[in-house]
Write a structure and sequence with these properties.
12% strand; alpha/beta; six-stranded parallel β-sheet; TIM Barrel
């Protein structure tokens, strides 16, 4: 991300007046970047120079879009789970597998909080930042946002997704203890990244699809207070982005009360419903379908969907994006079509206002 792009994203996130088209930003990481750049995933993860060149290339190839969070130092879903002891299996042609830990619920109280600086692959991710942050700055770019998984997602790598959902019903006290640990880990991981990168960091991205797997009552007990702690751990002026591309129907109107500024949500909730329930209290980031259109659709179809999203949102605070992350197989032509739609929509609206 270039500094001027960050200023536009930040203004949109904080719902401030913004000249020009609605910002176009896509969440991007290891499922999409290595195939686009023609490199092996193993090289992308373990060779800092390959990682640097790939990120610089996508920024240079798509000057019209904001890649978010930009220069994301990650190992797929594995940074936080690896610090808890989960096994990661790396491949040449896809993201790493992460095996859930076989920890009995009766022993969850024995788990100790990892060290976010030294444990697991978090140490490798921090090393990338330390090694390359000066090169990133010399390339005219910045790293304004750090990212972490949310408390339920991290917990799912300790218990497994299905078992965690059962634990919420059958073992609520132990589940809350586990979420205490994963919340502390997630916050400390964000803080560790910000410490390495320094004053350029002004935002966080928290990803937790599992908050959309539970109903409203359980969301209020097992998700909302922990997400709120993530947001409150960082200064009020920071930009706080929450990603959940599962269904957020049960909790959508509650999410603004967590303290997050931006919601990147999934296709299950249409734009009109999201705008109606959020009521301008968060900036929405979406809502072009990433699989049906981003991967399988034509540029014309992506352009039309982007236009419809802009038209439906109207004056609601919006950052145009996919309804989720930029997944494997999304074509460059479709990305450019969405960016072009934002430009054309702005110019048409402006000409009508004259």
């Amino acid at each position: 991300m270039r500094p001027e792009q960050w200023q536009r994203f930040k203004a949109a996130a904080k719902r401030q007046p913004l000249e020009g088209p609605v910002p176009v930003a896509f969440i991007v990481d290891c499922p999409w970047i290595p195939p686009y750049c023609g490199v092996r995933h193993r090289d992308y993860f373990f060779d800092p120079d390959t990682w640097f060149r790939c990120h610089l290339r996508v920024i240079q190839d798509f000057p019209e879009v904001i890649w978010f969070p930009s220069w994301w130092s990650e190992v797929g879903m594995g940074a936080e789970p690896s610090a808890l002891g989960a096994r990661l299996r790396f491949h040449d042609d896809r993201v790493p597998d992460v095996e859930a830990l076989p920890v009995a619920v009766e022993r969850l109280h024995e788990a100790t909080a990892p060290d976010a600086v030294h444990d697991g692959f978090m140490a490798l991710c921090l090393y990338r930042y330390e090694k390359l942050k000066h090169r990133i700055a010399e390339a005219g770019c910045c790293v304004p946002v750090v990212a972490a998984r949310g408390p339920l997602t991290i917990a799912s790598f300790v218990r497994g997704v299905t078992q965690l959902m059962e634990d919420i019903i059958d073992h609520p006290e132990q589940t809350l203890q586990l979420l205490e640990l994963t919340t502390r880990l997630g916050i400390q991981w964000l803080q560790a990244q910000a410490q390495v990168l320094g004053e350029q960091v002004e935002g966080i991205l928290v990803l937790d699809d599992l908050a959309g797997f539970i109903g409203r009552r359980h969301y209020l007990q097992f998700a909302h207070p922990f997400l709120k702690r993530y947001a409150e751990a960082f200064p009020p002026h920071w930009v706080k982005v929450f990603h959940n591309d599962a269904s957020v129907k049960a909790c959508l109107d509650l999410l603004p009360d967590t303290g997050f500024d931006v919601l990147n949500w999934g296709v299950e909730t249409p734009m009109a419903e999201a705008c109606q329930r959020i009521q301008g209290r968060m900036t929405l980031m979406g809502n072009v379908p990433p699989l049906d259109l981003g991967v399988r659709g034509t540029p014309e179809a992506n352009y039309a969907a982007a236009w419809q999203a802009l038209e439906t949102a109207g004056d609601h605070p919006l950052i145009l994006s996919f309804a989720g992350a930029t997944t494997t197989g999304v074509s460059p032509e479709n990305i450019r079509a969405i960016a072009r739609a934002a430009q054309d929509f702005y110019h048409q609206r402006r000409s009508r206002a004259v």
